[in-house]
From TrEMBL:
<dbReference type="GO" id="GO:0005524">
    <property type="term" value="F:ATP binding"/>
</dbReference>
<dbReference type="GO" id="GO:0016887">
    <property type="term" value="F:ATP hydrolysis activity"/>
</dbReference>
<dbReference type="InterPro" id="IPR027417">
    <property type="entry name" value="P-loop_NTPase"/>
</dbReference>
<protein>
    <submittedName>
        <fullName>ABC-2 type transport system ATP-binding protein</fullName>
    </submittedName>
</protein>
<feature type="domain" description="ABC transporter">
    <location>
        <begin position="5"/>
        <end position="234"/>
    </location>
</feature>
<dbReference type="InterPro" id="IPR003439">
    <property type="entry name" value="ABC_transporter-like_ATP-bd"/>
</dbReference>
<dbReference type="Pfam" id="PF00005">
    <property type="entry name" value="ABC_tran"/>
</dbReference>
<dbReference type="InterPro" id="IPR003593">
    <property type="entry name" value="AAA+_ATPase"/>
</dbReference>
<keyword id="KW-0813">Transport</keyword>
<keyword id="KW-0067">ATP-binding</keyword>
<keyword id="KW-0547">Nucleotide-binding</keyword>
<comment type="similarity">
    <text>Belongs to the ABC transporter superfamily.</text>
</comment>
Length: 307
């Protein structure tokens, strides 16, 4: 299926320095794409261009077949945006605010009530329609922020750090809501929180120093960097020095007398060498399990590669 967004050759320069260089992304019509990167990587610049807030130095953004630079108003109708700080009017009630947003987003007058009822239902806000936004909890404020982002039925919704500052329960609720929204819309989730991406995203694009360093499925990301440690149980384990004499082993930590964590330099044949050596020297190997890199380690490693 044709992607909802094509970002082609996007680069942006603030005065003299480049914030992003040659960014290419295709966004599928449903599901969540995680835009991951450390502070200053270029996420906000990319999202601001995508949402039509910033004009790129070079490159193009095509949203649902519409060129954002040629028909910005029409293209922007297809996008909903929840910035890091939701643009809420604290002195309005939920209903007043959503009505205001719907009018701003050109929802027809005859459709206003239906549009408001629908987003309130979806975001579980119906029972607080008449409450002032300033009196709502952080989680509910965020739901109102999400509701304004989808009130005009956009095909793409962009969330910037949507769970920032929420408590653990609120985080779960907001994540569930985003997951639900992604069943019939494309969602971009910009974050530096790896567990969030791991929990929510189908695809992942990682930006570092303004360039894409990884773009693939979440599963591929998780497996991207080969394991470099294993957990081993030996009844008759040798000393650290003996193990470290095996080529490729970089470090050995004894967790108990019989359980060890062995780090190696990425060569998977190392397990065979350990099995052979164990048989030869009578270490009585009982178990050997490769350990997958945690997402955090992968993230740190990819960041290092790009620097
Ligand atoms: N208005 C600006 N003028 C000059 N440089 C800017 C401006 N906005 C961002 N930059 C620079 O561009 C680069 C990318 O910044 P950007 O805000 O896009 O990154 P980010 O990944 O969103 O980071 P964060 O998570 O901290 O918001 C950084 O080096 C930043 O200092």
């Amino acid at each position: 299926m044709e992607p909802i967004v094509r970002i082609k050759g996007l680069s942006h320069r603030y005065s003299t320095s480049w914030a992003i260089r040659d960014i290419n992304i295709e966004i599928p019509r449903t599901g969540i794409l995680g835009l991951l990167g450390s502070n200053g990587a270029g996420k906000s610049t990319t999202m601001n261009i995508l949402c039509g807030v910033l004009t790129p130095t070079t490159g193009e953004v095509i949203i649902n077949g519409i060129d954002l630079s040629k028909a910005p108003e029409k293209a922007k109708q297809e996008i909903g945006f929840l910035p890091q700080t939701p643009p809420l009017y604290l002195d309005l009630t939920v209903d007043e605010y959503l009505k205001h947003c719907a009018i701003l987003r050109s929802v027809e007058k005859s459709q206003l009530k239906a549009a408001m009822d629908e987003v309130k239902e979806r975001c579980a806000l119906t029972h607080i329609s008449k409450r002032l936004i300033k009196n709502l909890s952080g989680g509910y404020k965020q739901r109102v922020g999400i509701a304004q982002a989808i009130i005009h039925k956009p095909k793409l919704v962009v969330f910037d750090e949507p769970t920032n500052g929420l408590d653990p329960n609120q985080i779960l609720e907001v994540r569930a809501l985003i997951k639900d929204i992604a069943t019939d819309k494309a969602v971009i989730l910009s974050t530096h929180i790896l567990t969030e991406v791991q929990y929510l995203c189908k695809d992942i694009v990682m930006i570092e120093s303004g360039r894409i360093v990884f773009a693939d499925t979440m599963e591929a990301f998780d497996n991207y960097i080969a394991p470099h440690s294993m957990l081993v149980i030996m009844e008759n384990a040798p000393t650290v020095d003996v193990l470290q004499a095996i080529e490729g082993i970089t470090r050995v930590d004894f967790l108990t007398e019989k359980q060890l964590r062995i780090y190696f330099n990425g060569d998977r044949n190392i397990s065979e060498a350990i099995v052979l050596e164990s048989a030869r020297q009578g270490w009585r190997l009982r178990e050997l399990n490769m350990e997958k890199n945690s997402l955090d380690e992968t993230f740190a490693q990819l960041s290092r590669i790009s620097n």
